[in-house]
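Data availability (excerpt). The following record was deposited with the supplementary files.
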Amino acid sequence: MQPPLEQALPDHNGHHAYPAHWEADVVLRDGGTARIRPITADDAERLVSFYEQVSDESKYYRFFAPYPRLSAKDVHRFTHHDYVDRVGLAATVSGEFIATVRYDRINAQGRPSSGPDADLAEVAFLVQDAHQGRGVASALLEHIGAVARERGIRRFMAEVLPANSKMIKVFTDAGYTQKRSFEDGVVHLEFDLEPTDRSVAVQRAREHRAESRSVQRLLGPGSVAVVGAGRAPGGVGRTVLRNLLAAGFTGRTYAVNRAFPEDLTELDGVPAHRSVAGIGEAVDLAVVAVPAERVPEVVADCGENGVQGLVVLSAGYAESGGQGRARQRELVRQARSYGMRIIGPNAFGIINTSEEVRLNASLAPEPPARGRIGLFTQSGAIGIALLSGLYRRGAGLSSFISSGNRADVSGNDFLQYWYDDPDTDVVLLYLESIGNPRKFTRLARRTAAAKPVVVVKGARHSGSTPPGHAVPVPATRIPDATVSALLRQAGVIRVDTVTELVDAGLLLAGQPLPAGPRVAILGNSESLGLLTYDACLAEGLRPLPPLDLTTAATPADFRAALAEALADGGCDAVVVTAIPWVGEGGVTESGDGEVLAAALREAAASGPAKPVAVVHVEMGALADALAAATSTAPVQNRGAAPDPGPHTPDGPDVAGRMPAARENQARPATEDTAEGPPEAAGRRIPAYPAAERAVRALAEAVKYAQWRRQAAEPGRVPEYDDIDEAGAADQIHALLDAGGRAGDTGPRSMPLTGDAARELLGRYGIDVRPTLPAPRPDDAVAAAGRLGYPVALKTTAPHLRHRPDLGAVRLDLADETELRRAYEELTGALGKPEELQLVVQAMAPRGVDTVVKASIDAAAGAVLSFGLAGAASELLGDIAHRLVPATDRDVAELVRSIRTAPLLFGWRGSDPVDTAALEELLLRVSRLVDDHPEVVGVALEPVVVAPHGLSVLGATVRLAPPPARDDLGPRRLPSY
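Predicted structure:
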């Protein structure tokens, strides 16, 4: 965690100001929240009250002796800190302490110390007994460790009594490199604070469990209070209450409205109360449907009475302007202070179709059928459209969330939940903003390795986010092409419209993944078969010649043809095309749709596991019959999510579900499915009214299946023996230090060109062809003599660089005469030598001109980019991107993913270029940026890739103080 400079510096008295940037909201192991903040001198009463509630045993473990109360000296010591050598943090709920941690900087002899040479500190915790087991100490350790690193402390030391096994486990499970010894009846622990792969993995596993649990508490409540349910029919609150009851919610339901008369005890058959406090029983979830100005009193009522989560349907927040944004920030702050999480405000609601819950706490009048799709949307209107579309086409949902302004709970939280949810096979997301792209990409990649994730993103080209969404400014500036590339790298299926979202979701939820791109086409219309064939070619699939069954084909003919196609080892998927057939009297056969649907289901159920899709024209009965074949059986070849680890409770969770390892088994097929293997009988065959829609969904499934196969064997980041990482670090620090001495506060961004850039890149095995200045013709001739003919003469003036259309480069100059002539032509046409900044460079072997770049995106992180030089990348935007660090597989895909890639592989008879050398260059650039966060930009242009080898002809590097890495810091909820 790198704070702003003004936060890290002391005031004029030498005291450090209150470090507000250390404040953070965190999700604990049980899904509740707590606030972590520095302890101040004003916390004396809170500290004493906290200590009084700690058991004698916990006090003994903390002080190694009976210590019933704190003295005035103790209280002063534990509340007065300099925030450098002595720091204390507290975890609070409802403003009161539930745990504390502190460190004191010491020397090797264990005495108080100060200064940069003292990099050791003693750390100690105390957790209130009622909050032990919630993961509070682990969260505090992450935050106090980050604070210590910021203040120059590199190691922690702790002394723990052997009987205090819980605290020993906190230290040993953290994943840091540590030493352990036993002396004088005390366990002595010492550990480095530098993050390790294991400590980061532990931190992220804890984050996953906590955030997943917080969503479980929202989706699986045992009781729900609808606050704002009115006595008159209609209205938002009464509608939600009606929907809860109509869905058959299995828990307790309460109606709450302060306007209820004193003698009203029941509404719609459920207990009615004037406040949550009046209920007198624990309430897990409150749905808030009151005017925005009344929400704070409702939140306080809920928080003070143990409500675990809120769904805030009320509008009038950030979507309404500056005053609403301030109201939204205060809503989040207030709810989190009570340990509650929020869906909303301005939300549409949540649905959980699990038989153990049957929750419809939303404004959706018709709850979806139970199914295997998890649906998240940031828009209520889009949520209504998606629910309607999925309902019409027979698709069922496991859960639905419309988050509105998503001020707290976001799509990232639900990715954590759906990752190992045994009731969800496919995740569908409609997003209008991505608040934390780094985290979203990381979570989406992990989830996509277990089940498909399909995303449609709104507001792609507006450069802004919906006014209600709280998003850091950098997250709104990521180019849409970069977002697409990063999602693709993470295995996310990105589609353009909500219609395509439903199309893809239906296929992925109902059918197995294809083993390859070979598609069989069969049906009773030659023309529709040809349209399907063309659509397959357009989407990059490999269609087999269509099989025309003729218009006289019967359902039995379709069944036999489909069974034969599925049994064919040369096909990976089947598209069935169907048009109505006509009887002898010229009248459409009655019941043809239902009969054909049954025939197709029978063939699919009895054949090998391959995806089947149906394209129909004016056969509504067929589509309806296929949609009616609904099953809740999980798709067996999808692959269950990996076991989240030994910390997962071995029993039912809050929704009554058992862990995935025991429940993710085939369920009995429904009455509508044909006999056959249970997993085959449970598949629903999706139907599409157009060939293009069916084929596009199938193509996305093919690409996703290929990504899944590759993800099973991930690439690697190669090690290169010739990389001088330490030398590069020394050079970077020296350059930044020199730049800092040249200015008051150091450089924001320091460009390197010429020898400095060449030296730094050379430390990573990246050779840049040297250029020699040519301010006069004689200098050009001398430079050519040093480099050897043939040479190139080119300008380096900023307004002329990389502009071959202006003729600012002369190539293949074989001798002095040609060089002098070229010099005269350039200066005569474009300006004086001092304006052109002419240089001479030795000629490189002929090849394809490319561009390799790396940059630090404030929201997405380090990004590696590649494209062809010139119009392809600059005019057409044909550039591909990957996140850093890139693996060997990433760079191979990167090179091949641009539209102009055929130019690298022998297009029209040209010689293929050395792509192996190009991929190695990309890997070396990725390593440079990943190893040294101070390198915030690298541009190699042009990179001429020849049939054998490559030449880097131009290079610039930008250095800057390393930007903050919130993805590597301690866990914290976003605060906008």
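Summary of structural features: Confidence is low (pLDDT under 50) at residues 1-9, 636-679, 743-747.
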